[in-house]
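Title: [Solved] Lysophospholipase 3D structure

Original question kept below for reference.
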Amino acid sequence: MPLNMTKIAFSAESPASLRAWLESHPDEALMTTRYLPKRHEEMIGGSLYWIFEHALIGRSPIVRFSQREDGRWHIHLEPRLIPVVTQPKRAHQGWRYLTEEAAPRDLAEGETASDAMPPKLARELAKLGLV
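Solution (posted by the thread starter after getting help):
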């Protein structure tokens, strides 16, 4: 089973703007990180799960990693956002590992994000310890 990671959808105004940014890249979308994850080989074939408003909202499959000339690393992603069942997730800096068991499931065919729990509701229920 591949390993996944989580990252805040920094500067995304909405899940739709994140989707638009990803889809604006014809072959691969690139995320940049200062350090190569130690477990990067396990992450090929896994996904980057996006955090928006303190909730996991979707994922983008990880294709590969490559080093830039300045020493930073590119995370190459498939240019698509696969919606998942909304799951509360606290914000953090950088990225964090996410095991397959802890990852939310993809939304089923015909199921929409509005059928799942909205991010704000998920956050409020998490604050109350209900989810």
